[in-house]
TrEMBL record:
Domain Major facilitator superfamily (MFS) profile span(s) in chain numbering: 41-486
Record flagged with keyword Transmembrane helix: yes
CDD domains tied to this protein: MFS_SLC46_TetA_like
A GO term from the CC aspect: membrane
Transmembrane segments: 42-67, 79-96, 108-128, 134-157, 169-194, 214-236, 286-310, 330-350, 362-380, 386-409, 421-447, 462-483
Localization (cell): Membrane
Name the record gives this protein: Major facilitator superfamily (MFS) profile domain-containing protein
Its membrane topology: Multi-pass membrane protein
Keyword Kinase in annotation: no
Keyword terms: Membrane, Transmembrane, Transmembrane helix, Transport
Organism per entry: Urochloa decumbens
Primary localisation category: membrane
PROSITE patterns found in the cross-reference section: MFS
Amino acid sequence: MMAAGGEVAVPLLGTKRRHDGCPGCRLDEANKTSTGIPYLNFFYIWIVCLTSTLPIQSLFPYLYFMIRDLKIAKQEQDIGFYAGFVGATYFLARTFSSVPWGIFADKYGRKPCIVISILSVVVFNTLFGLSTSYWMAIVTRGLLGLLCGILGPIKAYATEVCRKEHQALGISLVTSSRAIALVIGPAIGGFLAQPADKYPNLFSKESIFGRFPYFLPSFVISILAAGSCIACIWLPETLHLHDDEKVEAIDALEAQVAVSNLEGGKAKEDGDTDTSTKNLLRNWQLMSAVILYCIFCLHDTAYLETFSLWAVSSRKFRGLSLTSQDVGTVLAVSGVGVLVYQLAVYPFLVKYFGAIRPLRPAAVLSILLLITYPFLANLQETELKILINIASLLKNVFSATITTACNILQNTAVTQEQRGVANGISVTLMSLFKGVAPAAAGILFSWAQKHMTGLFLPGDQILFLMINMVSVIGLLLTFKPFFNMSSALRRS
């Protein structure tokens, strides 16, 4: 039986019993004898996380053109409205499935959950690329979000598959794979969408990639997902599956005593041992941190949806008239920049200022940067491409700093044995906010294009102002009485 955070519980009486046929027990024994880093298992985790994230990141460079070609929008200004719901469907579906997938993983194992999730990417991401109607795109995207329940279980798996001293590395692999997806995903979407138009010498109009211009990026991602699904064969199961319920009850008691011993032998207060969702919802330090995280996630997702639509929209609507390939390049450059920042710059920032203190300055700088975005439409050619890459890079660096701080705030607000449930609550609420964001951004984008004149500000400026207001609200909520930053700094 595993204690909180994937640590092997110390039994009440000597050595912990090993149950024959239990995959969790076999893995515990293997980790006891092998003190090295499980590089192969970590590599499989990294690949699985990467391929499950690519369908999200690859969509944005070509979404505007896909909605246009599906002919659901009656006029050009309505494209953003319909695009928003395609972007939102995945996250809204994940909102409803996050908790059930967590329960499934706790009952039947992490590995079945991971395999089913990757298979759903292979099937429904492929079908999405073959969409011949708007509603087919909506349904396939929704089913992908509903059945890809990997986000919560993979974090638990990353800490359980290794020894305690390697757990931080396991979690960092999950984070880094998502950062790499920010680079690879937009590049795949931007460069491989509409291949018959971009590479007529390689793809004819009569081929499947010519008849389905958005199939190639989906197909490539599905091939990568199929490869990672094959890699799952060698993933060990980490969940302890004991048939004897009495033995499980004893093991659970042993785990509680072990945690007490690890904390210096002090008996926990009654309120501290209750890890129920109800009690966590009463933990204001946790819930305020979760709300902050959700608000900034809402802002980031709305920004990404708006940026992708605005960058490719016509100059007559104060857009940038970029191609899907241009947008893919901008997002990929931003992803590379964020990765370099996280590996080379961010550690020094944390060393001198801590991980939480930069949250407010990053939010302020992000707000100031976004104010300049509407004026980029006045630029042309090389000057525009250089400045839009710089602006996008800085915006994503600020977002990464804020998101990391919010994640740390959540995890320091609860004890170790409560973090699994706390992160489950966070993922559910975050998915809900991320689901609302693209739909709201798409509606607002469509409205802005229809109201370019006649108001106190041009429509594009109102668009970015409204998105900026979400970040302003998040910044204001980092102060008392809503949130106690001083207390959070002391805990961290």
